[in-house]
Amino acid sequence: MKKQVLAIALSAAMAGTIVGMNVSAEEETYTVGICQLVQHDALDAATQGFKDALTEALGDAVTFDEQNAQGDPNTCSTIINSFVSNGVDLILANATPALQAAAAGTNEIPILGTSVTEYGVALEIEDFDGTVGGNISGTSDLAPLDEQAAMLNELFPDAEKVGLLYCSAEANSQYQVDTVKAALEELGYTCEYYAFSDSNDLSAVVTTASSESDVIYVPTDNTAASNTEIINNICQPAGVPIIAGEEGICAGCGVATLSISYYDIGVATGKMAAKILAEGADISTMPIEYAPEFTKKYNADLCEALGVTVPEDYVAIEAE
After folding, report:
1. Distance in angstroms (rounded) separating the CA atoms of residues 194 and 168
2. Nearest by Cα to 96 from 46, 152, 156
3. Left if phi > 0, otherwise alpha if psi is -120 to 50, otherwise beta: which for 139?
4. What does each of the 320 residues of the chain score in pLDDT, given as a tens digit?
């Protein structure tokens, strides 16, 4: 009888050990909240690159709660608050308003930004040195703005008036047009700001800009990127070419751009996320990462329609 009881006890102990081993061997899982400001080609590519890279690194251990704010910064705040309430392990903030909402929403959950031009401007950090600190890092979509100004000069050396078209609600759009304006004025151009507050007054502002400008410059602006058809339907008939800050805008209404790959910066952000989640990397010490290369691209159809000839080192944007 004692032997039988002992055998049962040993069996139970062994079973408990096995159960314990199975529990400890279970793979850790992560939930990542993605807040994307609005749907357009550039932001979509960055989100996809992020998901692809993080899934490649962590496989089924990571799940995504992907939310789109449909262009409304207030909705970004609502989305971020839901992520905080649900206790996600990491937040991807895709575009400046999403990053600003995330920064306001939590100082504990790791936040990675992407498609953010200048973090110092977005987060109101004076003397920004490249590392945000705290619980925030990420990737930037900043292209060399002086080289974009030089591109405009290369293609339109005889132009005199340049219209700077941007959304006044986007801090990083203001930063870009200010920088490009200074570079263009050094090249001898007269520049004028044409700011719209949202999509409601975009058409009227573009109409004015096209009537008063020889060339228009549009930065990496999310509202513009979501409304390229409106812009093109006004500027193309007026015969006014547009130099764009990124490829998606150029494909919709521009003739040329010096652009980064948003998919690639999304991938870089995903790799940063993997280091934080799986390797325990300290986000507070991670500097903002920038695109490694830039490509001169052109919109073949629009260049033909407007009679614009580009040098041989420009690459045609592939049609969707």
Report:
1. 9
2. 46
3. beta
4. 433 433 434 344 444 443 443 333 357 899 999 999 999 999 999 999 999 999 999 999 999 999 999 999 999 999 999 999 999 999 999 999 999 999 999 999 999 999 999 999 999 999 999 999 999 999 999 989 999 999 999 999 999 999 999 999 998 999 999 999 999 999 999 999 999 998 899 999 999 999 999 999 999 999 999 999 999 999 999 999 999 999 999 999 999 999 889 999 999 999 999 999 999 999 999 999 998 889 999 999 999 999 999 999 999 998 76
Report the SS3 class of residue 284: helix
Beta strand extents in 136-275 (DSSP E only): 136-140, 161-167, 190-196, 215-218, 242-244, 256-259
Tokens of 213: 């400008």
**Using an 8 Å Cβ cutoff, are 46 and 112 in contact?**
no
| H helix count then E strand count, the chain | 13, 13
What order do you get walking across the sheet with 30-36 strand by strand? 62-68, 30-36, 90-94, 111-116, 136-140, 289-290
Q: What is the pTM of this model?
A: 0.81
Across 110-137, b (16+ Cβ under 10 Å) vs e yields: bbbbbbbbbbebbbeeeeeeebbeebbb
Identify the bridge partners of residue 93 per DSSP, sorted by sequence position: 35, 113
